Amino acid sequence: LWLCFNEDLFVPAVEVKIEVVIPEKERSKEEMSPNGKASPLIYKVNGTARHYHLEEHPIASNPYHNPKDVVEASVCHVKDLENGQMREVDLGCGKALLIKESGEFYAMGHKCPHYGAPLVKGVLSKGRVRCPWHGACFNISTGDIEDFPGLDSLPRFQVKIEKEKVYIRASKQALQTQRRTKMMAKCISLSNYNLSSTNVLIIGAGAAGLVCAETLRQEGFSDRIVMCTMDRHLPYDRPKLSKSMDSHPEQIALRPKEFFRTYDIEVLTEMQVAAVDIKNKIAVFKDGFKMEYNKLLIATGNTPKALSCKGKEVENVFNIRTPEDANRVVKLATSKNVVIVGASFLGMEVAAYLAERAHSVSLVELEEVPFKKFFGERVGRAVMKMFENHRVKFYMQTEVSELREQENKLKEVVLKSGKVLRADVCVVGIGAVPATGFLKQSGINIDSKGFIVVNKMMQTNIPGVFAAGDTVMFPLALRNNKKVNVPHWQMAHMHGRIAALNMLAHGTEISTIPYLWTAMFGKSIRYAGHGEGFDDVVIQGDLDELKFVAFYTK
């Protein structure tokens, strides 16, 4: 288990001048059906067998459709790179990542499609490049994304060796976009469907739900897919709600509207499932609408805990759950007094974001030090000091006893210690509970805390019902398959992919390493592994300068 704390620095890499280059049209396994053969897919909807094919994509003899869109350039001598080395190279109209492993050269996009991190600063190991910022992983042979976060893969470019020189041939467009969406199937004919039935129903439209839907299409699934969400928006980048609070929904959308139309992924917004009838395979919505399904994914996430103190109903008290919540908080907090309850990741990120915008930021926490359970006291105090240097005031080892209002709007926050804080807006970040209340009578196995229990293939105890994301307890390979809950954005992506593959009977088990990140005041914390207590913390680097790695041992 390790934690890294440093700055996201952009260091210019060595560049090699080049001529012009072109794109590559990839197909191969993306066009195969789930069984790996180019045969029709057969699925049952409401008991009726239907046969579906992927759309025909004739492969042209020339993989580059437009020669003017192509660049070819000499980028280095074959001896310039040793095995296991990477170099960012300039093709004149864009850059590529050149890699040498086991004597072979590979070239692909140089930026991570997630947030644009320079992959040359990442790690090359066993045929994969791992992003230096948030841990996404890409296969160097195909460019395919193999670990998350992020949705897109990398464009792959042709490499050839002539007279001891390495040449790259690439598409100008691919060099500029630095991303590649895997080829996907489409639904054969939506007009043939009964509106109240679907082959796959996905409850929840976060990372797990979206990745599940996309993976099904990537694997050739061409039957109906319906996602439903209580949210009013299409799937969006939820971590940004506390890291970039003034972002509008369209700015943080994971996919544009056109994407869902193109690949026939239906999204029902502002639709809440009230119950699931597993015997008859029917989801019952709050408004009475019913939908039959063949396969079900439950990815409803968590519900934020609310304060239970006196005055909890006053205006201007928020849980950050939607873009509208985040936007409203920023507007109310500007040049005003903010109180944040809970030194959670959400609470600390909100405090960092508002520190330079608000008149004052006060943070109330029951523990002695922020992040003590996660990072230990020494690291927690170092983080706390950084916040104090940015005018954030901490009130530790206490909690809120009352919220006072004036004209029905928040005016003061009273602590159990007796301290009274001026407050124009209050943000609550005291944890969350699984959003699984609607499943209590369903027969789906739920533990005493409300988490859905699944196996390594994200399957519940009910055939055809899968669960993913923050709401599940799953076997973690890193901990000898102990059942754990890991509410991380990266893990939700992987859950969704594993669930989709097993809806198609691939028999794929989850084995990824948990990874999370947070960013505050220009500093980044990255945390890998899964810790449940520790005996010692080994620090390498300078804790005072916040440039260190911490190893948590037990």
From TrEMBL:
Highest rank taxon of the organism: Eukaryota
UniProt protein name: AIFM3 factor
Asked if Iron is a keyword of the record, the answer is: yes
Return the InterPro entries for the record. FAD-oxidoreductase/Apoptosis, FAD/NAD-bd_sf, FAD/NAD-binding_dom, FAD/NAD-linked_Rdtase_dimer_sf, Rieske_2Fe-2S, Rieske_2Fe-2S_sf
UniProt similarity note: Belongs to the FAD-dependent oxidoreductase family.
Q: GO annotations under biological process? A: execution phase of apoptosis
Keyword annotations for this protein, in alphabetical order, are: 2Fe-2S, FAD, Flavoprotein, Iron, Iron-sulfur, Metal-binding, Oxidoreductase
One Gene Ontology cellular component term attached to this UniProt record is: mitochondrion
Domain (Rieske) spans 73-168
- Is Oxidoreductase one of the keywords UniProt gives this record? yes
Q: Which GO terms describe its molecular function?
A: 2 iron, 2 sulfur cluster binding; metal ion binding; oxidoreductase activity, acting on NAD(P)H
